């Protein structure tokens, strides 16, 4: 693992600050207890990249993952719209993901007053063809707490792999192999 540090453009949406970094903690602490940085680290890859190329790839993939996490799990609650999370998916993967909305988003907690992140980790592996990064796998370990009506706090996690591809400079999720740990766990696997 390389020690290159970077901070991608921070997104402040709802209650979470998500940024992309290579293992080093953010230079400043979050402003409120509900904010947390998405930790993105690169492990072994099929091929090699310069530190600059790796930093660029981490930033681009980190931005896609950040959008997915914010749109799928964070923001204002109660809420009804979780499909914006699938903007980060290819068209075919988004169609599959829509049928797995309770697995891939916090849709089952839509009546919550708040969903807070407790852990946001992604470990990347890149597929390199010559000097071009053509694919990535993100092993995600995401933890949340949903504050439900009546005051109950329900913890849940999403763990597994998100598969990404780059097409004309745009990264998208084309497949997933993930499982949830909820009071009623769900799991699915697909790729398109």
Description:
Helix content is 19%, strand content 39%. It is of the alpha+beta class and 192 residues long. The longest helix has 23 residues, at 51-73. 38% of the residues are buried. Mean pLDDT is 80; it is low at 1-33.
Largest sheet geometry: 6 strands, mixed
Uncertain runs are 1-33
* Proportion of residues in β-strands: 35-45%
Order of helices and strands: EEEHHHEEEEE
Distance separating the two termini: 29 Å
With strands numbered from the N-terminus, the spatial order across the biggest sheet is: 3-4-5-6-7-8
The secondary structure category is alpha+beta
Number of helices: 3
Rg result: 16 Å
Q: What is the helical fraction, as a range of percent?
A: 10-25%
Silhouette: elongated
Q: How many E strands?
A: 8
Whole-number mean pLDDT: 80
């Amino acid at each position: 693992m390389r020690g290159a540090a970077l901070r991608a453009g921070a997104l402040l949406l709802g209650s979470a600050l998500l940024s992309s970094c290579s293992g080093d903690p953010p230079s400043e602490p979050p402003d409120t207890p509900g904010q947390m940085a998405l930790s993105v680290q690169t492990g072994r890859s099929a091929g090699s990249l310069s530190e600059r190329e790796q930093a660029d790839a981490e930033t681009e993939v980190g931005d896609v993952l950040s959008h997915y996490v914010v749109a799928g799990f964070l923001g204002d609650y109660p809420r009804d719209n979780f499909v914006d999370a699938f903007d980060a998916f290819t068209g075919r993967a988004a169609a599959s993901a829509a049928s797995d909305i309770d697995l891939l988003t916090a849709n089952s907690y839509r009546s919550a007053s708040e969903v807070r992140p407790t852990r946001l980790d992604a470990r990347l592996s890149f597929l390199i063809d010559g000097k071009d990064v053509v694919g990535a796998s993100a092993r995600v370990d995401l933890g949340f707490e949903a504050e439900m009506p009546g005051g109950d706090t329900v913890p849940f996690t999403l763990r597994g792999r998100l598969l990404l591809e780059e097409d004309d400079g745009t990264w998208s999720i084309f497949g997933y192999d993930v499982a949830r740990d909820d009071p009623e766990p769900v799991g699915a696997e697909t790729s398109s």
